[in-house]
Write a structure and sequence with these properties.
CATH class: Mainly Alpha
Number of helices: 10
Largest sheet: 3 strands, mixed
Helix content: over 70%
Shape: globular
Number of domains: 1
CATH architecture: Up-down Bundle
Strand order of the largest sheet: 2-1-3
Radius of gyration: 21 Å
Length: 306
Amino acid sequence: MEEGNRSTVTEFILLGLTKSSELQLLLFVIFLAVYGVTVLGNLLIVALVACEPQLHTPMYMLLGNLSFLDFCYSSVTAPNLLAGFLLQAQTISYRGCVAQIFFFHFIGGIKIFLLNIMAYDRYVAIFHPLRYVAIMNQAVCVGLVGASWVGGFIHSIIQVSIIVQLPFCSPHELDNFYCDVPQVVKLACVDTFAVELLMVSNSGLMTLLGFLVLLVSYSVLLAKLSTRSSEGRAKALSTCASHLTVVTLIFGPCIYIYARPFRSFPMDKAISVLYTVVTPVLNPIIYTLRNKDVQLAVRKLRKLHL
């Protein structure tokens, strides 16, 4: 692109999910309800884990951390989605866009590491129940969670440090409802092949490797469960099936978005909605609210307020 066509971009225009006026109000109501349930469900789990002594165990500490991350993850993008249904032209400042990319990948990176830690936790609980308290003690659990946060920060800061070095030109329209790396990189005034390769190596490879590690982990778990008693096997299988469902819902869309060249495809927006808005509302139901200990804690909480 010629130097004369370059301009300093101070904001980006978000094109949103749809421009159909007939759909906008309906979608606003639907996604407002989904976001409300996401906030209430995940914060309820965080409160239960924090306040209920029975849930002060490594497993529930990890689940509470996941719920907090889901609340934050959804809150990074859902407000933009909802505003896009009400505004004629939605804009986001350059700094706001960079900040959104940072927090989006910071939280997403933590979740990838945390899900691997949760798989390890389940392995120890199922196959080393007598040593579980010694292996997964509070210090180890806090250390692993802290490491996942550090890993998420390193992953995200790499993304942002590459983005801020790119020059951007007009037009500055993002064909999505939030700022993310693939759309923003494509607006740069330079050849982005090397940048895309770095981004795919960072986000795409990390996501793909995390998914493969989890698949291997749960495959080993399922193989070893075949030697268990029918009752113990059924309980463990139920837990593993729930975890695998969440893992697939999180990692599948991420691999689709980040482990390929940054080109637009018709399904991109639908996939983005799935893993930024829908998955965070499903996690509390799949992972936690079906758990008997959590259900007991909810009943105790209801009795206290009756």
